[in-house]
Model the fold of this input.
Amino acid sequence: MTLPKLLFELSGRTRLEMLHALETNAMTFTEIADQMEITSSEASRQIERLSGMDLIEKLASGSYAITPLGRLMLSFLPGIGFLCENSDYFLSHDTAGIPHELVMRFGDLSGARFTSGLIETLNLTQERMRNAKEYHCVMTDGVLCLMIPPIIEKIESGVTLRMIFPKMYWERFYPVAGEYGMTDEHLRAIGIRTLPSVPVCVGVTDSGCAFKLPDFDGEIDHSAMVVGNTPAFCRWCRDLYAYYWERASPV
Done:
């Protein structure tokens, strides 16, 4: 098997749908033809091609089933599908700040959605902050002053807060925060760390997660945000946050 040959075989919609169907249950020849809505001769041809790549196999019962190799191949496709469906975004945004091991897990993002527009992303950020009951962790290149009051409210209600800032921003944020009612006691209640620069923005809360990428000029694009609530997406965002938290310096 070669990669070009594999990609060629998986490029056929019928063969791909057949693989997904067999991922759940073994099926007879007739069941495959009926579910795919194809003729017997076409079903025979497609089965032969998938069998030739060892992606499906014929069982002793006469039914067909996906092979362990076929199941493994399918596990890589959600990430590719997510990139294809959102190709315009990834053509204009830099993923260099995402660790390679998380790029390889892009399939976890398949349940996410995009929010566009500065007002929309800001409103969603505020909503996630308001709805946080247990924890709210954020890595950002800056905090709007209007976010400081709800941050104080969450601190006083016992919500665990962690923040990662660019070092230069933190030096500006500290005096401004006091003007909006944030005391040293509030600041001590927040786990704050800094990086020389923030390559991506990511928010992790018990009410959902989100991230933003920079344009290729290096500036975070705050007008577009990837958001989601699925367990896989939230686990991916938590792992991204943890990656940078371990590398950031405590204030």
Q: What stands out?
A: The two ends are 53 Å apart (CA to CA). The CA atoms of residues 69 and 170 lie 50 Å apart.
